[in-house]
Write a structure and sequence with these properties.
- The protein is mostly helical and 377 residues long.
- It has 20 helices and 2 strands.
- A hairpin with a 2-residue loop joins β1 and β2.
């Protein structure tokens, strides 16, 4: 009985010593927070390990976060995850729906961003942009022939109407000379013809009679313009002029009309397009309504996907610019020692308790061995 009590006593003492030793060692990781001085001498092991090494701990935590936890590869995998992309697209749709539900007009939106008189501002902006676009476009194309500026479809459409244009012109000339004004023009030309020939012309005019001669010229002119050969000749002339015109460089057209005049015309057209339209005062939801399905089902997912891929392509640079290691280090250094202790204990409390218990268990085993040795001796 005494032997059992002796072994039990030795085990209890060993467990107490082992457990208390480990407990004190764990406490000394955090305590004391400040160094303790006696007679001007700093006591060893003060302050505790973590308060003493807080800067190194902060730096290591920062490196660990950047190198092993929040890495560019991990962020890229999260960004390009289809589930995350779908969630971003859903968020974009919800945000767009809320924004459109406000029934805000483009003018109100621009005014909210500090643009006064949006119609004037937009019209002048459109005029400047149109003029600048024309200058850039003309610098590229001004030495090239006009045929290169025309799309194949437009060129084919215009050429297919040359013959009908010839018929149209001939018909309009016939209509004109068949009118009273055209008849007066013919009579005037005949009078000038005879007057330029002097006395002989006057005698011929008296003999022929002006009125009958005008009717004859008018009739013959109509027959001439209605003849298929005349219209074919007119079509050939138009074809010749068309081919000659499309062979001119754009610079030739600018010289004929005036480069500045063309630029002003383009700018004025852009300005009028903005001013003569009521879209600035219509709600954005109304303007977008015809394209709403395509906007929500196609544009928003594509925009979300493009934004995410653009972000993932630049993720290394973004992480580097953010300086996550410095953020973590500064944040840890700004913690009070008590808060830092609470954070570490909240993470490793169970493990630290197990270390204390393990110390007690090892102490008890050592006490038992020492008791057995003492009895044996």
């Amino acid at each position: 009985m005494n032997t059992f009590v002796y072994l039990l006593f030795m085990m209890a003492v060993g467990a107490l010593i082992g457990g208390m030793t480990n407990f004190i060692a764990i406490v000394m990781l955090f305590r004391p927070y400040e160094p303790i001085y006696i007679f001007g001498k700093r006591l060893p092991l003060t302050p505790g390990l973590i308060p003493k090494r807080r800067r190194e701990l902060a730096e290591q935590l920062g490196k660990t976060v950047v190198e092993h936890l929040v890495t560019p590869e991990g962020l890229r995998r999260k960004l390009t995850d289809p589930v995350f992309v779908a969630e971003v697209a859903d968020w974009g749709r919800e945000w767009l729906k809320r924004w459109l539900s406000r029934r805000e007009t483009p003018a109100q939106l621009l005014e909210r961003f500090g643009v006064h008189a949006p119609d004037e501002w937009l019209s002048e902006l459109a005029a400047k942009q149109a003029g600048r676009a024309y200058e850039q476009w003309s610098e590229t194309w001004r030495l090239r022939p006009i045929r290169d500026l025309l799309s194949p479809e437009l060129k084919e459409t215009m050429e297919s109407r040359i013959e009908s244009l010839a018929d149209y012109l001939a018909d309009r000339v016939i209509d004109y000379f068949s009118s009273e004004e055209g008849k007066r023009q013919i009579a005037g030309m005949i009078d000038r013809f005879f007057q330029e020939r002097g006395m002989v012309g006057g005698m011929m005019q008296m003999l022929l009679g002006n009125v009958n001669f005008v009717d004859k010229v008018q009739s013959e002119l109509g027959k001439f313009l209605r003849h298929a050969g005349t219209r074919a000749m007119l079509a050939r002339l138009l074809w010749t002029e068309w081919n000659k015109w499309i062979s001119y460089p754009l610079a030739a057209v600018e010289e004929m009309i005036g480069r500045q005049r063309i630029k002003e015309t383009v700018s004025a057209a852009a300005r009028g397009l903005v001013r003569n339209n009521d879209w600035l005062d219509r709600p954005l939801a109304e303007l977008i309504a015809p394209y709403e399905r395509e906007l929500f089902d196609r544009f928003v997912p594509q925009a979300a996907n493009a934004a995410i891929h653009a972000l993932s392509d630049k993720i290394e640079g973004i992480v580097g610019k953010l300086g996550l290691a410095d953020i973590v280090r500064n944040q840890v250094e700004s913690f009070s020692l008590r808060r830092l202790e609470v954070i570490i204990l909240s993470i490793a409390r169970r493990e630290l308790k197990m270390i204390t218990y393990l110390g007690a268990l090892l102490g008890a085993m050592i006490g038992a061995v020492q008791g057995i040795i003492g009895l044996w001796l």
